[in-house]
Amino acid sequence: MGLLARLRGRRSAGGEGVEISEQGGLRYLHLGTDTVQSAMRLAEPEELVLSYTRSMLAFLLFMPDARRVVNIGLGGGSLAKWIYRNLPRAQQVVLELNPRVIACARQYFHLPPDGRRLLGEIHDPHAALSEPSDQAVRSGVLHRRSGSISRP
After folding, report:
1. Which of 6, 122, 136, 145 is the least crowded, having the fewest Cβ atoms under 10 Å away?
2. Are residues 75 and 12 both part of a single domain?
3. Spatial contact of 76 and 40, defined as CB atoms under 8 Å apart
């Protein structure tokens, strides 16, 4: 089954522009386009299905015991779930502009609830990064949806 068959099964998930589809045991997140933003294997929700999310773990080569991680943009929360499960001492802040994306990640992609180790903030990432005094982005590892940047 190709893209067209998958698109026929798309449904709104939390509001305009936030849609999910499923095919072959995988659930996909789309944000207003046909592009797949996130994917989750239903049988193994913490697995990093898309190669770009696996490449974002390269920071572990330099910071294998990262304690603070800031994710810029949530998508389906694949990276946030993986870090939550595999780096138990890490605290994460997720900066996401669209509150519907956070709700969708929780409802359809098994994102853990906010707590001591994970905090999803509805925040403009550009504003957060332009404020050098923002404690959330002053130290640790920064991740953006298109790649990652390590910060001391």
Report:
1. 122
2. no
3. yes
